[in-house]
Write a structure and sequence with these properties.
This protein is of the alpha/beta class. The chain contains 6 helices and 5 strands, in the order βαβαβαβαβαα. The two termini are about 25 Å apart.
């Protein structure tokens, strides 16, 4: 299960991602927005991230204009490790090394072709564990 949401800067890209998830047979819960109206991205980031943090979804995807506002909000939620990605290398290594559970994308930054490849990498790349788990544990300690 993937939790997904966007603001008005990410609606078009989110719709492309939903179509892609459907084609891949990936189950998702869409937290909106559903039509093109201006919203505050934390109002979407919080429910998506809570759903991931409570274990109802394995991962989340958030889309705004740049991906940055969504990532700042997402990383305030305990248990969430969110990264804005615009390239294949960062997306691969943020899964391998950071075990990120939320991918943030910029609908005004990258096109759907690249974005869908990054979504696939994010969903399909496992966490490497080992020394990287120690580092993540140190980040988790900051939340206490
Ligand atoms: C909305 O105009 C825009 O600020 C938002 O989508 C996002 O880019 C913020 O980081």
């Amino acid at each position: 299960m993937i939790a997904i949401g966007c603001d008005h800067g990410g609606l078009e890209l989110k719709n492309a991602i939903l179509e892609h998830l459907k084609n891949r047979g990936v189950e998702y819960k869409d937290f909106g927005i559903y039509e093109n109206k201006s919203v505050d991205y934390p109002d979407i980031a919080v429910p998506v991230c809570n759903f991931v943090a409570e274990g109802s979804a394995e991962k989340g995807i958030l889309v705004c204009g740049t991906g940055i506002g969504m990532s700042i909000a997402a990383n305030k939620i305990k248990g969430i490790r969110a990264a804005v990605c615009t390239d294949h290398f960062s997306t691969k290594y943020t899964r391998l090394h950071n075990n990120t559970n939320v991918l943030c994308l910029g609908g005004r930054v990258i096109g759907p072709g690249l974005a869908l490849e990054l979504v696939d990498l994010f969903l399909d790349t496992p966490f490497e564990g080992g020394r990287h788990q120690t580092r993540i544990d140190k980040i988790a300690a900051l939340e206490r």
